[in-house]
Write a structure and sequence with these properties.
The complex is a heterodimer of chains A (381) and B (182).
Chain A lengths: L1 H41 L19 H7 L4 H11 L10 H17 L8 E3 L5 E3 L8 H9 L2 H11 L3 H32 L4 E2 L5 E2 L8 H6 L6 H4 L1 H14 L24 H26 L17 H26 L7 H34 L1
Antiparallel strand pairs in A: 1-2, 3-4
Helix pairs in contact in A: 1-3, 1-11, 1-12, 3-11, 4-6, 4-11, 6-7, 7-10, 7-13, 10-11, 10-13, 11-12
Chain B lengths: L13 H5 L1 H16 L22 E3 L14 H5 L5 E7 L13 E9 L8 H5 L5 E3 L14 E2 L1 H8 L8 H10 L5
Antiparallel strand pairs in B: 1-4, 2-3, 3-5
Classes of the chains: A mainly alpha (381), B alpha+beta (182).
């Protein structure tokens, strides 16, 4: 018993981490299903509707509905990746070739450590985030680590020793580096507004205002009244466009370019290694959706200017998580929806959009917001 | 030569230059098409309706009395371009079917090799007895070459009975009985 009490602080974080990884990987596989289903609905097709798992799939009515929705399809997809023959082309650079999928997936999974997904009220009545690690610099960690994912793509493209993957890798790295700038700059105004500035009290002493810094939790808490997207639409738009580019989703699928580069960086990959790339792509989408919801769509806050209808107890926490997840699902749907709406950009168009339009706009947006904040502080102090 | 008319192209407005209204319209389009009812046929369970004159697998049919129509004239065998039909003519068992004794001949064996058949329909066209028909079966498969050869029994199984009103051989028999054959 004593041993258990002593080891609990060490065991619980591991339990939480394992739980979160399982939920996250489940989400990844089901967003693959969502992609397939939504794509087929948009194209007037049916999508996967045949896979049936014994027992569960044979429950009357419910089993048929689940099969029709393709709910067992992720199992089949995953098993397919596991059991396929593992072909490694003779011309690849073995070490890096094996390393690339791991490097692609690891950052996407690492960033979820600092992603808050709900809130609870602790014993002292203070609202706390539900998160694996509540770090003040959460956003910086996410930006820093998620952009490491590009190494996976570059390594894959380079180690494949083949021209299409190479071109895909080069394009992907150029694109991700270009859009990283606009992304970071589009974020700054949000944090500048969210972290309440200091003010001078009646005796002229400076009172420190910012409690949160770059913390994602602080941004969500600051959106209890108005969501950021409502009064920072430009930042939201810039961030969203950059997000699409960072996740290599259409219309910015430069890394994959299946229309002109076969499969882009993962042309030479098969079976489970390809599966890892695939999961990494969807992990990035889920993370991106989560961050967009936290920063611009009010996180787990109910509606703009409407107080959360749920209470502070466990029930309230669960509902806050559910509401946050609902928003994330909408964003994932939006990603897929956009894919079938816009044609893809040409490579030079991607570059000129990034450098000539998004970056100047982001800088302008930042300067404008800085001036407004400075004026606001000067006038209201 | 027709004169080419150059259309004046209006300069894009600011909203159009940002593409945003167009993207919203596109999103609307894809969303409405998502909500539309699909046209997919769930194939093995749901079958398409086959038109009457479809040229599917050739089959042998029986007359409305349930009797064999084919008289083993072998015209189809001769006309068949890929030589898929093989007929062994035989006599009619007069003891078993006394009312058909005057027909004289019937196929003993009737094989259609479906690996050779090209579904041209010449056999149906040439048949004087309207005994062979290309019907609505469009998917045929088997595990071996032998399985792909339809024998007489199989052909009648696939063909069934055709409700025509010709009764050619009945008329011939009654005419013979009345003493005015031919």
């Amino acid at each position: 018993m004593e041993f258990l009490d002593a080891s609990l602080p060490y065991i619980m974080p591991i339990v939480y981490a394992v739980l979160m990884i399982s939920v996250f990987m489940g989400l990844c596989s089901y967003s693959v299903l969502a992609e397939r289903k939504v794509s087929s609905w948009i194209q007037g097709r049916v999508g996967p509707n045949r896979t049936r798992v014994p027992l569960v799939g044979h429950i009357p009515i419910l089993g048929n509905v689940m099969t029709g929705l393709g709910l067992f399809q992720p199992v089949a997809d995953g098993l397919k990746f596991l059991f396929k023959e593992e072909i490694v082309p003779g011309h690849v650079n073995k070490g890096y070739y094996y390393l690339a999928p791991i490097i692609a997936l690891a950052p996407a999974l690492t960033t979820m450590v600092v992603l808050p997904f709900g809130r609870y009220v602790d014993a002292d009545g203070i609202t706390q985030p539900l998160v694996l690690a509540n770090v003040d610099l959460g956003m910086l960690i996410i930006l820093g680590i998620s952009s490491l994912g590009v190494y996976g793509i570059v390594l894959a493209g380079w180690s494949s020793n083949s021209k299409y993957p190479f071109l895909g890798g080069v394009r992907a790295s150029a694109q991700m580096i270009s859009y990283e700038l606009a992304m970071g700059l589009a974020l700054l105004p949000v944090f500048m507004w969210a972290a309440s500035p200091g003010y001078y009290d009646s005796e002229g002493l400076f009172v420190e205002g910012s409690r949160y810094g770059m913390s994602l939790f602080g941004v969500v808490q600051s959106q209890q009244a108005a969501w950021t997207i409502l009064w920072q639409p430009l930042s939201a738009l810039l961030f969203l466009v950059a997000l699409f580019a960072e996740t290599n989703r259409l219309p910015f699928d430069m890394a994959e370019s299946e229309t002109d580069l076969v499969g882009g960086f993962h042309t030479e990959y098969g079976c489970f290694k390809f599966g890892l790339f695939f999961v990494a792509e969807y992990a990035h989408i889920i993370m991106g959706s989560g961050i967009f919801v936290l920063l611009f769509l009010g996180g787990w806050n109910f509606l703009p200017w409407v107080a959360d209808p749920w209470g502070d107890g466990i029930f309230g926490s669960v509902l806050s998580v559910a509401w946050f997840m609902a928003k994330v699902f909408f964003m994932i749907f939006f990603f897929i929806w956009m894919r079938w709406t816009l044609p893809r950009f040409r490579y030079d168009q991607v570059m000129s959009l990034g450098w000539k339009i998004l970056l100047p706009l982001a800088v302008g947006n930042l300067v404008l917001n800085t001036i407004i904040i400075a004026l606001y502080d000067t006038l209201t102090r | 030569m027709a004169k080419t008319k150059v259309l004046e192209r209006k300069p894009l407005s600011f909203a159009e230059k940002t593409f945003l209204p167009q993207i919203v319209t596109g999103l609307k389009t894809t969303f409405t098409s998502m909500l539309q009812k699909g046209v997919t046929l769930q194939y093995p369970e749901e079958r398409p309706t086959i038109p009457d004159n479809y040229r599917g697998v050739p089959t042998l049919v029986k007359d409305p009395n349930g009797r064999e129509k084919c008289v083993s004239c072998q015209l189809c065998e001769f006309v068949c371009p890929p030589k898929a039909i093989r007929i062994t003519p035989g006599a009619i068992d007069t003891d078993a079917e006394p009312e058909r004794a005057h027909v004289e001949k019937a196929p003993q064996e009737f094989d259609i090799n479906m690996l050779r058949c090209i579904y041209c329909g010449l056999c149906q066209e040439v048949c004087p007895e309207e005994a062979i028909f290309l019907q609505d079966i469009f998917s045929l498969s088997g595990y071996s070459r032998e399985e792909m050869i339809n024998n007489k029994q199989k052909l009648y199984e696939l063909g069934g009975t055709l409700p025509d009103k010709h009764f050619k051989w009945d008329k011939k028999k009654s005419a013979e009985a009345a003493g005015n054959a031919h």
